[in-house]
Amino acid sequence: MSPCRRLLSCLMLVAGLVSGASSRQALAAGFDITVLGARGGLEDGNLSAYMIHPIGDPRAILCDAGTVLHGLQVADQRGALDDTRLPADATETRPGFVLHHGIAAYLISHAHLDHVAGLVLVSPDDSAKSIYALPSVTTVLSRDLFNGAVWPNNGDIGPPPRLGLYHYQDLAAGQPVTLAHTGLRVTAFPLSHGSVESTAFLLQSGTDAMLYFGDTGADAVEHGTRLQAIWQAVAPLVRAHRLRGIVIECSYDDTRPDSQLWGHLSPRWLLRELTALQDTAHTPLRGMPVLVAHIKPSLRRDADPLSVIPAELREGNRDLGVNFIVPEQGMRLQWR
User: Fold this and answer.
1) Which end of the chain is more exposed for a tag (fewer CB within 10 A), N or C?
2) How far apart are CA 305 and CA 311, in angstroms?
3) Phi, psi dihedrals of residue 182, rounded to the nearest 5°
4) What is the pLDDT of residues 266-295, one digit of tens each?
5) What residues does each domain of the chain span?
């Protein structure tokens, strides 16, 4: 090839890469969310896990990891992974390909088993990833879970031998961090979950944002102000109409006494907290998507939390007017 043609080829390659990157940035407006696990405890195989990436950019993170591989398999069966193109020489299943090449990192809100069991179980065949969490969470994961006794130490800290598959990345509360190999930034906020510190993650891509909450109680019940601090932090995004949606728990119905919520929300408390966000932002939340996560199943014959909790939320939502969504495993949503 002549020097001129070689130069022309290089220029065309660079132009193509720049064009592709620009196109992806232009398409990335809002968030693509796939529910790998929807419920909160009791039912193994459908526990909190949400795969999230900017629309138009398939590089995803997993917010919590209660159920991973089974959730990917259900999502595949429901068609949520249909736009994942497998290479011609791929030897993996589509769920396996997404696990190894689509999910770039884990964001873990706290180390309770219904939020990390899938991470543990999938780790023998996972690809190298970072685990982003508050220091209180990475300490428990490395000391009490991936410790060589409960499970092999797949991390890069903790008791030897360290296999180094996972890199623990501590997050500082309130400090935004760019998530490597993704188009996302994250800011972590501590939550009160009974005696345990949990986490809310503010995810941002360009000017768009969404909130993901791990387990949390209401400020009034937890005798704190952690939720109010988050409402103050995101109020400018609400006023600018850049907060695209919220994933937040509602574990029990309103018959549950406050003294037995154990660091969780019920419909009346969720509605009060969303009203507090609206009041703080001085902007109506009407139409805001709110995905109601972590509903706990009941073993009582006369109880139906999946019917009662949404009904109680609808009853109290007449003035607020948010768009409550009850997730199902394998569901895929786009928030623009």
Assistant:
1) N
2) 9
3) -140, 175
4) 999 999 999 999 999 999 999 999 999 999
5) 30-335
